[in-house]
Specification:
By secondary structure, the chain is an alpha+beta fold. It is 48% helix and 14% strand. The chain has helices spanning 6-16, 38-50, 57-60, 81-97, 106-118, 131-144, 248-251, 276-285, 288-318, 324-349, 363-388, 398-401, 406-412, 420-434, 437-447, 453-463, 467-477, and strands at residues 20-22, 25-26, 61-63, 70-72, 148-151, 174-178, 182-193, 200-204, 217-222, 228-232, 255-266, 270-273, 352-353, 359-360.
Amino acid sequence: MGIITGDGFIERLDRLGNEIWLDGERVKGKISEHPAFKGIIRAKAALYDLQHDTKLKDELTYVSQEKGERMGLSYLQPKTIEDLRKRRRMMEHWARCTHGLMGRSPDYMNTAVMSFAASSSLLDGKENSFPDNLHSLYKRATEQDLSFTHTFINPQINRTQLHLGYSAKPISAKVIERNDKGIVIKGARLLATQGGLTDEVIVMTSPRFFLEEDEAFAFSIPSNTKGIKFICRQSFVGGESSFDHPLSSKYEEMDSIVVFDNVLVEWDRVFFYDNVEVAEEFKTCSSFHTFAYHQVVTRQIVKTEFILGLAELLVETINVGEYQHIQEKLSEIVIGLETMKALLEKSENDASIDQFGYMRPSMIPLQVASNFFPKIYPRFTEIIQLIGASGMVSLPTEKDFNSELRGDLDMYLQGATKNAEDRVKLFRLAWDLTMSSFGTRQTQYERYFFGDPIRLSSTLYKNYPKEKYVEEINRLLK
């Protein structure tokens, strides 16, 4: 089968009938037609269609040696630096299609599936571990072009390190039964972005203090498995008008809590269970983080390019480019963009074959980028707000321009280089990116994409090779 079309993706998603709850009600009917979800589903479908573009197919797909069918390049397990660059070029195409605003574009989770399968030997010979199931997932995903979400985080009941979280009933998802069919899961996991809007959901334990054995598991199951429900936050789709809500109408991804109500995970879907050691080591020792960072940094670069283009167009529209404080602000974005590009390129240039035989990007530059971007992105949104100033507040709607007010708007809202309608469209875009509920969620999302920024800094410090610099000082002091 290989790569699917956008229509194929939508039809398959509608057939699943996943249990999704929004604003106190279960979503009924075709999920692709629901106002809260249809924008992101159509945007995602466009990515699948892009794989069939005759001009791009060689940059977005590869031919499987086993099947002779075209597979998505996000599933390619790289053996050379050129393979890495092929993967990056593919990710750039998809990111540019969504302006870097879709944090869970399919290539992110496809990359996760690829890396888990590439690192499956970590499970060899380990108790309650099934490396063959990871290979089966990878084969199924590539052959059917499946879409995935994941959930790795427990509910934030009490974040104190010494809190053990004892409860009469499971709060965080736990194994409550093991039988001849599989394991039974009860409890919840947090923050499945696009939860309920994908074919499958991957559930994996993240290492943490005082991990209990019944919480140490990993598996992937269809999103419509009996007993799974997705509880959505409030929708940030401002409306269907692409004039009024140019971004949220297309790219509002939705985040959800995943509740497991006695969910049976059959044995052929389980990667490991009841093994704290494996749960603590698999994600950190596998290639998951390295390849995931590679995808994310690629997307964030495209997103920064989008922000730079938006900022410059704002400057031109209101003719403020001559002011040095404006030039300084735009230079901040340029510095951020070029720094991220250099770090990504260094990660590829310094790539090496890992213990599993695959070409892995250098992790240190990617870790630096993952520490850098959460700090600069909020500043980028602030720069957009400062350039736009009061123009970001007084924004009429599409209906206003289609009313008898049109003459007034054309007179009083024109820009130096744009008529009133085009100027308002631009400023509404800037508002939707930085000030709407959709935009502020984007900022928080980038701040915490890979978790707590302090923990990320600590990990970078611990992993960075500092010894040769210390030795140089010691030699000086002798």
